[in-house]
């Protein structure tokens, strides 16, 4: 009976150490994937960047799984969340008053896109040749679609969106406007500054949700 507490403590310690190691590996993978791309990033390179053995990386996750986790953590702060409402990106947003709700949503998603757009591009490229990444991409896009349908419903509930809009079409439009792709094209590639991008984004979203 006296061994129960020490064993529980050791088990919790091992679990915490394993999670800390995984966090370090995913962060290292994110840096390398973003700078070197998917194909050029090796398990050995991730291990060196994380300060662990290649075997530790392999037992933590496969390369494709590391790319998926790297994007999810970089973009939203959480792995495998089914909705943005369950992540750091949307933390507390639903509790905000109507007059600041939309601007808060736009700011938080823009910030997430600034962090994650590079890895999103890598994810899209890897999905063309890796079935595991392709499957994950499909799930991410499905979750994104559901999130924007919920956003449209929330905008309608708050009276920010106009009654009678085509909810599905509006959700699809918002999914593109607020996507990493639009940020990548306008800010990273075309050189828009964040002020110009934010102004365009807000005006475009208002146009869509008011019909």
In short:
With 211 residues, the chain is mainly alpha-helical.
Question: What features would you describe in this structure?
Answer:
- It is a single chain.
- This protein is an all-alpha fold and 211 residues long.
- Helices cover 74% and strands 0% of the residues.
- The protein has helices at 4-36, 43-50, 54-60, 63-76, 98-127, 131-157, 167-177, 180-189, 194-209.
- Helix 1 crosses helix 2, helix 1 crosses helix 4 and helix 2 (43-50) packs across helix 3 (54-60).
- The protein is globular, with a radius of gyration of 20 Å.
- 29% of the residues are buried.
- The mean pLDDT is 92.
Topology:
Blueprint (H helix, E strand, L loop, with lengths): L3 H33 L6 H8 L3 H7 L2 H14 L21 H30 L3 H27 L9 H11 L2 H10 L4 H16 L2
Helix pairs in contact: 1-2, 1-4, 2-3, 4-5, 4-6, 5-6, 5-8, 6-7, 7-9
Question: Features of this protein?
Answer:
single chain; 211 residues; mainly alpha; 74% helix; 0% strand; globular
Q: How many β strands by DSSP?
A: 0
Secondary-structure element series: HHHHHHHHH
Mean pLDDT: 92
Report helical residue fraction.
Answer: over 70%
The main sheet comes to: none
**Rg computed from alpha carbons, rounded to a whole number of angstroms:** 20 Å
Structural class: mainly alpha
**Overall spatial form:** globular
The proportion of strand residues reads under 5%
Q: If helices are DSSP runs of H or I spanning 4 or more residues, what is the number of helices?
A: 9
